[in-house]
Amino acid sequence: MNLSDEELERYARHIVLPQVGGVGQRKLKAASIAVIGAGGIGSAVIPALAGAGVGRLTIIDSDTVELANLHRQPLFSEADGGKPKTEVAAAFVRRLNRFIDVDPRQQRIGPGTAKDLLGAHDLVIDGSDNFATRLAVSDACVALGIPLLSAAAVQFQGQIGLFRSKPCYRCFVGDAFDADDCDNCAELGVLGALAATVGSFAALLAINSIVAVGEEQAGKLHLFDGEKLEWRTITIPSDPACRACGSA
Description:
The protein has an 8-stranded mixed beta sheet with strand order 3-2-1-4-5-6-7-8, sandwiched between helices. The protein has a single domain, classed as Rossmann fold (3-Layer(aba) Sandwich), CATH 3.40.50. The chain is an alpha/beta fold. It contains 10 helices and 8 strands.
């Protein structure tokens, strides 16, 4: 997949990086990523990926813009109140980079829709706010053989992990959270800058994965403490009894 003269100029600061170069930039252009959630994490992920030149972005979210979103979701403004988040986010992408093919999907993703929505993507980034959605997405990614990058932020704590089928996200959290009744940032709160930090880290991890920069990160969970301003990384073991990937 070739780059036009305008794209060569647009991505010049990427292309001069020896870890990226023209080959890496063409990989980004050829990539197709589904972003679940246009909230606090998505508000950092979507601009970063669009700016980086990821060729196709699918944005999946069923919510509309509310005033309480604005402290952590800079994709939106007060004038966007009541509008579908996916449509506003897609308009932002089109203004930022006309070379990006963006597909807004204003619908809730779940066990019955996940495979259809996520098929034909190279990577899924999940920034949703409940375990039921995350587990449905993870199970679909395992079944489809698509890498999943899961990112979450609540209060002052953030976590980001890349899963390539085994171990999967269900290996990490188990089956206890299948019900859609867990606490989220609406109940517990979240610092806006923390969500942006986690989203930016997730975008960097996604870009590195596509371009093949650095060490393989699959199966590692990166944890950020926003009070202590410290990162730590743990390794997630596979669960032989996992009902999603145990026999994979």
